[in-house]
Design a protein that fits this description.
This protein is an alpha/beta fold. It is built from 9 helices and 18 strands. Helix 3 crosses helix 9 and helix 6 packs across helix 9. The radius of gyration is 23 Å and the shape is elongated.
Length: about 350
């Protein structure tokens, strides 16, 4: 049994107390204790998502409907909250479980990985110049981003031949921020499948002592338009804001997990050579327009002399690419892991 509670600063695992009340309604926890069904529950917004493998059923407390895979509206007896527990009727239990099992499919959930080397072409990004002895070391962010991204893409393609591994650019060309996110958002996958977005950048600072790597994700309170009202049909348009909030919560959780896996892997790989600056929140355009779990990785400071020397070494960029790859693989392992189907009691 897995039950996740959403909070703005992270994730807390909780277990809904199991207690049976008199009458038609009964504790959902009783059912969850018998099957491998995951429940993501936001107690502040009173919304939740049941999940088995690919399939999700979204609900809001006291509403007489749920949405299957963010598309199909299904009538139910409302799920209620009583004395700190979520409760449903036998009819709702059977309807939701049947929808989850009936629409679930085998195979990996992450179908595509979009890698975005920042800057390019007429946009060099940040530039680092350092006088080392009699020679001047000049590095352009766009070149480092591309080299690292190509290495990362190669690793992922060899590991996941069945997944789409797509680069926003594979050479020194200019792309607007809009073009990058449009490319990611237009990747064709099954509705139940996922795409993840990883943007690669190099940092800079007016402080020449600033150094290290960090991973950014969108602040949990930021809201995107993720679900088009046309997608759910005219009769369901009034619930689009709620559905959008549910999906945003899911993307936030997955973005934080992806960012943490990448950061931890970078610490393991290059933590002895660089500084771990941690996880950060920011409304970067390049990820705020991406309708999927997305992170931005700053692999080092081009303005720090010693770090610039490292970023100029192919062997170091290989370490960085391998670390980001390891983080992505760990994240995909948690998302793609199949959930065992259990016959409803």
């Amino acid at each position: 049994m897995g039950v996740r509670r959403w909070i703005l600063s992270g994730i807390i695992l909780i277990v809904i107390p199991v207690s049976v009340f008199a009458g038609e309604y009964r504790d959902i926890g009783e059912f969850l204790s018998k099957v491998e069904l995951e429940l993501q529950w936001n107690p502040f917004l009173k919304i939740g998502v049941f999940r088995i493998g690919y399939s999700v059923v979204s609900f809001k407390v006291d509403e007489p409907w749920v949405l299957v895979n963010y598309r199909e509206k299904m009538k139910i007896d409302p799920i209620i909250e009583k004395e700190g527990t979520l409760q449903w009727t036998r009819k709702t239990e059977e309807a939701i479980y049947g929808a989850l099992v009936g629409s679930n499919k085998s195979g990996p959930r992450v179908a595509a990985i979009f890698i975005d080397p920042g800057h390019g072409g007429k946009d060099p990004g940040t530039v680092g110049r350092h006088q080392i002895g009699k020679e001047t070391l000049e590095l352009k962010e766009k070149d480092i981003n591309l080299k690292t991204s190509l290495l990362l893409a190669d690793l992922l393609k060899r590991r996941y031949p069945e997944k789409k591994v797509i680069l926003s650019r594979s050479d020194d060309r200019y792309l607007t921020l809009e073009e990058r996110t449009e490319m990611a958002n237009s990747i064709s996958v099954d509705p139940e499948d996922a795409v993840i977005y990883v943007s690669i950048h190099v940092n800079a600072s007016l402080n020449p002592k600033a150094r290290g790597f960090e991973v950014w994700y969108l602040p949990p309170q930021y809201r995107r338009k993720l679900i088009d009202s046309d997608r759910v049909g005219a009769e369901n348009r009034e619930i689009v804001p709620i559905l959008n909030m549910m999906l945003e919560e899911e993307y936030t959780i997955e973005s934080i997990l992806l960012a943490k896996h990448i950061l931890d892997s970078m610490e393991e790989s290059v933590g002895s050579l660089s500084e771990n600056r941690g996880l950060k929140e920011e409304i970067w355009f390049v990820v705020r327009k991406a309708k999927m779990p997305s992170v931005l990785v700053e692999i080092g400071f081009i303005t720090h002399e010693e770090e610039a020397k490292l970023l100029n070494q192919p062997e170091y960029l290989q370490k960085i690419a391998q670390a980001i790859y390891n983080g992505i693989v760990r994240f995909i392992g948690t998302i793609d892991q199949p959930t065992r189907r259990v016959k409803a009691p």
